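Regression report. Comparing outputs from two consecutive submissions.

Submission 1:
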Amino acid sequence: MTSEITRAEVCVTACADAWSGAGEVLAHAVGVIPSISARLARLTHEPDLVLSDGECFFVSDPPPIGKSASSGLGTIESWAPFRSIFEILNTGRRHSMMGASQIDRFGNQNISAIGDWQRPKRQLIGVRGAPGNTVNHRVDYWISRHTARVFVEKVDVVSGVGNDRARAHTGTSLRFHDLGVVVTNLAVLDYAEDGSVKVRSFHPGVTADEVRANTGFDIDVSTTTITRFPSTEELRLIREVIDPANLRDKEVRA
């Protein structure tokens, strides 16, 4: 089984590892790979992680990706209407794994617009919950396609607050700012002492030159660590329980 491990499955377990130590907090997972990873973490090393079915229920026995508890799959623990999510967010008992259209060298995230914000070339989804997430609790990012168009020297619009802005802020509103990791289809990234993005591990088969060529700023690629493969049990859960329809391979490009 291990000889057939895909890049998507490596990405899932790398994302699942990001939930380690989260404890009893609400997992906010945006995208197929983050959603699989949160379920995998709950079923393995992080049993207290609180999962939503993506609609209005907290579930202890998560349904497969693409299914909700209202369809009769999964074990419902609690009802969580949308209005209650903001209350949870403000307490900090939440952990987000979001996407990004742009990320710069200090982890500032853009999901709002491309180009001059007054006359953008492309209008995106707006800042959405990114400001509140990065102010109140830990935030990780998932990037399905690691390119220099995503990893830029400076984002066009700041949606999620990066390390440089958080450290320069003189008030107390950013005291809970906590950027964790950035998992991409090429590597796992984290942050250096100065707050800049660096490589934590390369996915199997990926080289430092490949990451450097697909990043729009100078990035520390000095690590020799390789992202781990999923275990046999993790593979079983991914393939048979969480994502039997194999939606993961549609999101990841090796």
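Submission 2:
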Amino acid sequence: MKRIEFLDSPMDVGTMSETVSLIEDRIERGEFLQHVVVNVAKIVNMRRDKKLAESVSACDIINIDGMGVVFGARFLGHHIPERVAGVDLFHELLRMSAIREFPVFLLGATDEVVKKTHDKAMELYPNLDIAGYNDGYFWENEEEVVKKIRNSGAKLLFVAITSPKKENFINKWKDHLGVDFVMGVGGTFDVVAGKVSRAPLWMQKYGFEWLYRVYQEPRRMWRRYLVTNSRFAWMLIKRKFLSR
């Protein structure tokens, strides 16, 4: 897997299968691995949020999630074979963990959503060992939740909390979690639990997943995507044509 710099952000170029194989190998050897995915919004926000930028840069694998980043990196001359979407990687790692008998811990979302995610994961992967789960509203007792994760015996931890909270939480507590692998999965639990649906495949392929999110939650999402997409486009133009 090759690491590149794109708009001052480090990221790793690799396929889904390469990513899963690397993670499986590190877990097998008991070597801690911190994972994150980047999309347009995160790259834009990293320019102004130093703590978020530090948390992302500290990760061992930085996969490209959004197609906007794939297209943007290609526009600047990088060879990007495919994106590694967080929700797809989550399922691939659950499948791998069920086969390898690696216990997992689910952290994040509301109590109802994380319970539904647990139930759906067990339905899809009957041999999966879910060592525990907890909702994402624990900020007044972080240490207790960290202790719960550590005592669970889990090897993989999935954190479904909004950015930048999840990146900063993982970076803060990574040495105390007792797991071999930790990954921020954002809104993945909402998708798995059926609270929200993913965009059709053609929209995912051509980079219009953000438009589907706006359609689903217009009041919450329209300004976010208008601002971040506009800033991202300007960043690309400056780097391509004005940085001489």
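Expected: both submissions complete independently.
Actual: both completed, but the second showed a warning that disappeared on reload.
Relevant detail on submission 2: The first strand starts at residue 2 and ends at 6.
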